[in-house]
């Protein structure tokens, strides 16, 4: 059976890397273990492939047709943090990578990391920080980022909430006006 309760993923869920470069996928265990297994799911080939097992002493056992020049595992001094290094990246390295360990004949599987290898990385866009004044935002990229504090996704629901609150106060103000008038009439009748 599979379980993920003793593994803490440290790498983002998706890595975009360039052909012929290298990357690393980090995996941290909550407890010290006897080693880490690394697997890859290939959507294209529709298979789950064993890459390698690395024990705490730095010895590695590789899967069938897995190059030792391409894959290596490094362990941090904490004995609970491992990183899979992948070099000479190519399109065949695309896939979903998993780290795992075994305990009491159970395979504990970590969260997945999707690796996409491309020939050319897309250009990065930058956004200047939003001013402390409300509703002022300066962007340097051609396409505005709609997730920041200056975004309509933030201020439109806020404005709608204020309008709804004000509209809900109208009946209350009307009732208060009627009560005040009744009280005034009652006082003046006496």
UniProtKB/TrEMBL annotation:
Keyword Ligase: no
Keyword tags: Adaptive immunity, Disulfide bond, Glycoprotein, Immunity, Immunoglobulin domain, Membrane, Signal, Transmembrane, Transmembrane helix
Organism superkingdom: Eukaryota
Classification via InterPro entries: CD8B, Ig-like_dom, Ig-like_dom_sf, Ig-like_fold, Ig_sub, Ig_V-set
SMART domains associated with the record: IG
GO biological process: adaptive immune response; regulation of immune response
Membrane-spanning intervals of the chain: 153-173
Domain Ig-like: start-end pairs: 9-116
MF annotations from Gene Ontology: coreceptor activity; MHC class I protein binding
Any Pfam family matching the protein: V-set
Localization: Membrane
Membrane topology (UniProt): Single-pass type I membrane protein
Predominant subcellular localization, coarse grouping: membrane
A GO cellular component annotation in the UniProt record: membrane
Protein name, UniProt field: CD8B protein
Organism name: Sagittarius serpentarius
């Amino acid at each position: 059976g599979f379980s993920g309760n003793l593994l803490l993923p440290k790498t983002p869920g998706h890595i975009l890397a360039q052909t012929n470069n290298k990357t690393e996928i980090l995996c941290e265990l909550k407890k010290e273990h006897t080693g880490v297994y690394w697997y890859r799911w290939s959507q294209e080939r529709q298979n789950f492939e064993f890459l390698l097992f690395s024990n705490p002493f730095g010895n590695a056992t590789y899967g069938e047709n897995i190059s030792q020049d391409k894959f290596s595992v490094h362990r941090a001094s904490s004995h609970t943090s491992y990183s899979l290094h992948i070099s000479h990246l190519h399109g065949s390295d695309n896939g979903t990578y998993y780290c795992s360990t075994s305990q009491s004949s159970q395979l504990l599987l970590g969260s997945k990391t999707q690796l996409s290898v491309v020939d050319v990385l897309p250009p990065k866009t930058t956004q200047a920080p939003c001013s402390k004044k409300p509703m002022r935002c300066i962007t340097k990229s051609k396409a505005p980022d709609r997730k920041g504090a200056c975004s309509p996704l933030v201020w439109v629901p806020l404005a709608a909430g204020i309008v709804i609150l004000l509209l809900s106060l109208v009946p209350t103000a009307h009732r208060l006006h009627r009560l005040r008038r009744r009280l005034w009439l009652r006082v003046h009748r006496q």
